[in-house]
Amino acid sequence: MAGSMLPLMDKAGFELSLLSKFVLACQSPRLADAAKDLGQTPSALSIALHNLEERLGLKLFERRGAGLDLLPAAFWLFRTGAHLLYLEQHTRQARFAPGRRMVKLSVHLDLNFAIGRVSKALLRTSQEMIETAPELLVDWHFSGLDDEDIGDPTGLAQSERLPDKSGQLRIFYGTASTVSGQAVHLYDDPWIVVGNKGSRVDTFQPDERVTLLRMRREIVDAMTRFATEHGFADRLRYRDEEPAQVSAILRDQPQTRLLMPANFMPRRLGLARHEEVPFFPGFVSSIYGETDGAAGSYGKAFLEAMRRNLVAENSAVFTPRLTTRQIHLFNLVAQTGSISAAARVANTAQSSASKHISQMEEAIGAPLLQRTEEGTSLSPRGEDVRAQTVVIEERQDWIVRKAHDIAAHSEARVTIGTLPSSGHDSVLTEKIAHVMTRIHARHPDWRLQIVESSNTMLHEHVRSGDLNLALVGMVQAQVARIRLGPTEPLCVIGNPAISFGGRKELGIEETVALPLVLGRQHLSIHQSFADAARERGLRLKTVVEVGSLALAIAMVRQAHLCTILPPSSVRADIEAGNLIAVPIRHEELSGALSVIFSADRELSEAERIIVQEFVRVFRPGRTATVEMPED
Predict the structure, then answer these.
(1) Bridge partner residues of 70 (DSSP)
(2) CA–CA separation, 571 and 627 (whole Å)
(3) Mean pLDDT for the chain?
């Protein structure tokens, strides 16, 4: 368990250059091979991959001796990240006539996903089409996987730039007797027997038992029929695990011998420690492609290039030149209408923002903005680029959110946000500490991180996926919540020199009249007070607006000033006579707390346990009730 005062992941997210190194590494037999292709040392590449894991908060590799095995999360990131890199390359390189409408080709792969011959050929073909058909944008989906979570990765589904007709293309296993006359034969995939290194798989005999993993029904049925015809069906065993898990299966059960198409055992990271031999008697599964009528010449050209690229199992290499910062600032310029406004939103200097935009124009090779005395507008090329940079940024944000979700489910890695602490001995701090120490005692292997931020920022980071859960005061829309209720009455905390006339309790109207030091734009407690005053039509005027509770307390100690806090936050000062506390009427103001989380995802088991513990500590004997955001 780790506590943190570090800032949450900023808008920069993760760089595409890190992602491109990851994609190349996954396709290489060894890390040293990928490092050589990149002109780096293996140690430098290893550090880059570790940085990517840190930026995403997600474990991608199992480090074993001198090698790396890919975890399931790595296969997910390869699928989603490769398309992000393709979009960046298309954005830079595609050159087509201004005003020409873009075309989308949707490629549906009715195949098991593997970082192998098919996926490498798919990526290389999509890259080639940028040059031969620059107006074409390709998206792809492997059957049964989670790509539909992203929606339309090209961003053209609702775009006016998309023509009425877009192409559909299907790639699948089949036989000459079952496919239509329009289907194009792409590749014959021979079956192999796979075993652990040193298991003498080369001595495999047909009477030995072999295991089939979870594969497309068509090829499993075809192998079962073949086995029946050749008299070894009783020797087939079935295992409900994906071919991507080969390495883990053979590590845990080294005696197992697996039967599968060769495409599932490509030259990729994590498979160098296994052996394979051709299956005897020989068996081949053929891969076909077919298009619908709308795909036209684009679909035919894609299939022809795909067939050519399937011959050699070469890696797809991406060399992104656009940075995440450049894309974010460009999108802000397009949204705000000027570089200066974009710089203000991004909290950066105008000169820095202008430099990033200029570097982006240099990478693309064309001006993206038209700068005049009246302001800044997008050039024709800028309009085309923006249609894709918006999608790139949205897709990158989605990857970050999904990575945190996967980590919460697969690794029990949970990041929890809390409001800034007003004191180490406050009731709120004590209760949060009680929750986290109980969780750590019961689940010492869980990877927990606690960060502090303002109420507004906690909401933003929950929505962006940087936080799994957050403990907040005022709850905004678009998040799910569980009410925890008030933890402690709020009080006016004042300098002893101020006379409260012996009052034992104050109303909001009386409190507004006091010389207040507040952080109403940053601090949840003070936001709730400002909202309560506004509801009563009271004008709230602070003496000084601060950004931290500690500063507010220090100022009240030294001058005739007041602030608003739970009294436990300054218990020692009250007992010493340095400060005084007068309660605010509970019915007028309460320090209500809630646990919030994204309504767009399902909580992991670890997150559910943590939420239940918060409810147990803050609301003993109560049942947790989830309130979803209104539509």
Answers:
(1) 61
(2) 34
(3) 85
